[in-house]
Amino acid sequence: MSSTAPTPSPAQPTPPTPPVSPAGDELRCTDADRDRVIDLLKASYADGRLDQAEFDLRFDLTMKAKTYAALEPITRDLVAQPTPPPAAAKAARDLLPPPTTEERLLAALAQATTWVPVVVGPAILYYTVGKRSEFVKHHAAGALNLQLTLLAVTIVTFGLGGALYGIAWILATAFAVIALAGAPLRQPWVLPLFGRGGPYEKKPE
């Protein structure tokens, strides 16, 4: 093998792949491994990525290399490094800051209004606090949807659906506890009249 740099040419074939250690960097490399590094150095010189002095220095290091650990730095900046896979996109709710204590209390209050099924309470929270807090808006919308669903069932069944309000009190208590814990709540079985499309309403990716 000669240290004389090749004459640059307009078109060069694809540079050879540098040797890769089969098990560990401290393993001894072979003449074939050094030859592949020299070929890559020649191609890089021809491409203009190395000047004469750099080529001669790396050629000399290659000839003296005994292990893969000694060969790897010689071509480290001459070969493309593998690109890590893109990180999975986060769900919209994961991009929001965690709810504050005040937000959790107001969200729990919105859910607790179902104990007295009047839509005024959650509606006020939805249209006021909900403008600055997606978490409160999410739970206020859930309370509104639940109450309106119960009202619709009661009307359709000519009052018989009113018996469901007993169950609704239990649900309201459970939902208020969930809100206090700072967790979102999905209610696919109620009429989605409010809150549709918000970050907490979207399914996780």
From TrEMBL:
The chain crosses the membrane at residues 105-129. Residues 7-21 have a biased composition (Pro residues). It comes from the Bacteria. This is DUF1707 domain-containing protein. InterPro entries: DUF1707_SHOCT-like (IPR012551), MamF_MmsF (IPR019109). Keywords: Membrane, Transmembrane, Transmembrane helix. It is found in: Membrane. Residues 1-26 are annotated as: Disordered. The keyword Endoplasmic reticulum does not apply. It comes from Nocardioides luteus. Its main location: membrane. Residues 27-78 form the DUF1707 domain. The keyword Membrane applies. It is a multi-pass membrane protein.
